[in-house]
Amino acid sequence: MAGTPAEIVRADVVKNFSTALAFPTAIVWDAQGLPQEEADTAWKNLLDTVRQDPTVREVTDGPMMIEDWPRSDWHAAFVAVKATTYGGAEKIVPNLRADVKKLSFPGPNGPWITGGPALFMDLNIASTEALRKGELVALPITFIILLWVFRSVMAAFLPVLVATLGVTCTLGILSLFASVISVTFFVPNLVTMIGLGVGIDYCLIYLARYRRERANHLTTQEALRITRRTAGETVLVSALLVMSGFLTLFFIPLEFFTSIALGGVLVVASVALATLTLLPAMIFLVGPRLEWGAQLLRPLQKFHLGPQVCEKWGRFVVRRPWACVVGGLALLGLLAIPALHLRIASVEVKNIPPQMDSRLGYESLTRNLGAGWMMPAIVLVKHPASDWMSADGLVQEKTLVDQLAQLPNTQKIISVTDSSGSHHVQQMRMGMLTSYEDPSQSVILLLSHDDPQSPSARKWLDDISDLLAKTEGTSSNGNQYFVGGLPSVTLSADRIIIGTLPKVIFVTLCSTFLLLLIFMRSLLVALKAIILNLICVLAAYGFQVACFQDGWGARVFHFFPTDGLNTVVLMICFCALFGLSMDYEVFILSAVRESWLDQHNMKLAVQEGLMRVAGIITSAAIIMVSVFLSFGFGDVVEIEQLGVGLSFAVFLDATVIRLLLVPSIMTLLDKWAFWIPGRKLPLAERTPRGHHYEDQKLNPPADSNRAAGI
Fold this sequence. Notes:
Helices cover 64% and strands 7% of the residues. By secondary structure, it is of the alpha+beta class. The strands form 2 sheets. It has a 4-stranded antiparallel β-sheet with strand order 2-3-1-4, with helices on both faces.
């Protein structure tokens, strides 16, 4: 974000200093056990090859910069690449790896390319692999679940086909935008997860309603017309609600979130459009063949529990609404308790799969030189004049360096006031830390003892900023200090995200409330929906904290334990869940409202609504949870957090909220459930079915077991 200290440091370091500071990149090789002469020759050949790479400015062998080199059989070189942005530096990493592959190296270990750009490049690669594995798991599982629901091969195949086409079209559109904006590695994973989950759910809702109407002896055209008016409207409103959640991400002033918001909006629009146009066209074309394969799956019919279970559950809820409300809220509150000690954590090296090239090199550097060498904190000093290196100027900088050295977690400081080392080392240090383009600027490098992205290192960055602000405020020399470097970039981004969170929450609540108010034409239903959604999101956060931050998931599910939750995951979960949870809200409320408008009996409407849609909601939730979970067992921690958080929230939403809290609250609200100020309640179209409605036997439509898909 322009104007932040980290961005000021990046721009000035790229312009006036070495890109080796702005985008730290290194080549590391552990030649332990090899003959010294053979290893040295291979290393020299590699450095010569890399220096000839047109994307490289300069290569500096480690011992030329660091006199107390740890081992003679361990090699490291620092590379200055021809790039002005982190994205540009990432694109050079494959070139460096290609240079390494050109040569043959003795011993078991080949050289590793590591550093900030390489680490993010490997994070991209790992997330892409997680995406591929997730797709391979999600699609077959989804097809099997749809077979169970529809008892028809053709009916099970159509939702998978439509959702996959929607996702593919979205990725195609995003590839065009990728030439204009930077598309983060989260986007393909998010698009595939959301697209498959939401798209298959939409198709399931649409197909289930069509088959129900078709089973009532309507023609294909008549059934499609009714389906378009009922299920089609539900899909459209649900898509608008999900899209409104992603649209709020545009309020975060980071290009990273612009691509996420764009991907989320595009994929929901694509799968909804495919459901409302392509799916009915396919249904019309296949005609009676929609039930193809039903005879083969007929033995599964005996496992149907549907209407009986849903009817008994509906009678239980309307008889004990207060017990259901209290029990449901207590369960959600209990699950939300861990969220009270939620901590924010950045992407750390330990989150990257251990076999990745960049992590192996980084860990080797950490063992031999220290954790901070690849991600130093950079203090940019803007002096009032170019002749600042007078006796007084150096004394003042030495005083500041001594104070910085006293901070906890400071392992080493590299500055122009350091007189240690040979004359050659001092000259190199001076050339690296002072600017020939702008002599009034210099930099101080601070190396942390702990991992630069760890919580303790982040606190250390705050200590550095506080000390510099105090020095700038009390000193009369007119110096300006700015803290940058990759750890500072990620810390600044996290704080921008957290600072924007209240605005995102407010806009999400308002947009969701207004859309529900317009669609359901009820003030209390809309208010109830956003309150329950907030509680559901908090419960999902609590589960994520327990799984990843507290380590329960590591012990039970072998998830990777972390120091906290990633801000990107938290923000995506909030915006996506607020939209996704409305799928089932709109679906069940549409069924209840349809029944209530028919007879104005809320208890009977709740029972009928649950019997009609509870099975479909359960099936849709199982599909969405399986899709999200299939991406939650990859090698990238952030993708794990996203998949687990979304799947657990959908599970809660489809069970505790939609099948317990919503019907019980609707029962308590009675006729006021569909009240809106300034308008009269709609009139009943027919009279209730007797006085003891909660004990009546409700007759489902013909062949409802198969038609409703429950």
